[in-house]
Specification:
The protein is of the alpha/beta class. The protein has nine helices and nine strands. It has a nine-stranded mixed β-sheet, sandwiched between helices. The termini are far apart.
């Protein structure tokens, strides 16, 4: 656990902020590791990374610290990733993981926000459709369904960001499971979401092309918005490649009425 300070413009003072690693046990006995950035805000943003990314990845640690200036933050490792146990099921069971985190947040916070990236967005959308306690959602590079993900790994926009984000420790922490589990298709449940939802896509995304996000946005019936990041790639790459704009858009969405 460590402490540092953040300036809160609303309260016009300096808050002490702490980051503590916690673990929650899911209903199927998987231990889910999270980083809890706590400053005493009444709201919390749960950040759900995608496949092959963890809460301790450089981009997600930096992102969590940025958002923790405005709200408490819980960044998580899904099963089969980082310091969580089990094997990754490519969205078949991961909603169980985020539900364990939401259950924790319900006991401590007045408002719960979800932000997912790539397959993490699929899980966030599913959780948002199931949990009416969720107040707002941000879905970044969300696919309409797992089976239609393009994943053009040979394209420069795919392999170059992957190379630039290379972290040996993270690569050794990933434990994939079987691909054949039954998966919820985001396109089938997005119209069940009632809370305001922001859909974000990268113009040059070679992994989940922007048409996925557009289709989800068009089918959603909640209060919604769609943002396309020009010349940006996939998921957390939007934060890396256009950080100031990404933070601004997300914060405006979360804290606007």
């Amino acid at each position: 656990m460590f402490s540092f300070y953040v300036y809160d413009k609303n309260l016009m003072n300096i808050r002490e902020k702490s980051m503590q690693e916690l673990k929650f046990c899911t209903i199927d006995k998987i231990n889910i590791a999270v980083n809890h950035y706590e400053s005493g805000f009444k709201s919390v943003l749960i950040i759900a990374p995608g496949w092959f990314m963890t809460k301790d990845s450089k981009s997600f640690k930096e992102m969590s610290e940025e958002f923790s200036k405005y709200t408490d933050v819980i960044s998580m490792d899904f099963r089969g990733h980082g310091k969580s146990s089990g094997f990754y099921t490519f969205t078949s069971k991961e909603v169980i993981d985020i539900n364990a985190v939401i259950n924790f947040a319900q006991k401590r916070y007045e408002k719960i926000y979800l932000m997912g990236f790539s397959l993490g967005s699929s899980i966030v959308l599913t959780a948002g459709a199931e949990n009416k306690c969720v107040n707002k959602i941000i879905a970044v590079s969300a696919p309409v369904c797992f089976e239609k993900i393009e994943n053009k790994v040979w394209k420069k926009e795919a392999w170059l960001p992957t190379f630039q984000k290379f972290e040996l420790k993270r690569w050794f922490s990933i434990r994939p499971g079987l691909l054949n589990g039954k998966k919820v298709k985001p396109i089938d449940i997005v119209d069940k979401i009632t809370c305001p939802t922001l859909f974000i896509a990268g113009e040059k995304d070679p992994t989940v092309c922007s048409w996925h996000t557009e289709a989800l946005f068009n089918k959603a019936v909640c209060k919604k918005d769609y943002k396309l990041f020009k010349n940006c790639c996939h998921a957390e790459d939007l934060f890396i490649q256009d950080r100031e704009n990404f933070i601004k858009i997300c914060i405006n969405w979360l804290f606007s009425e």
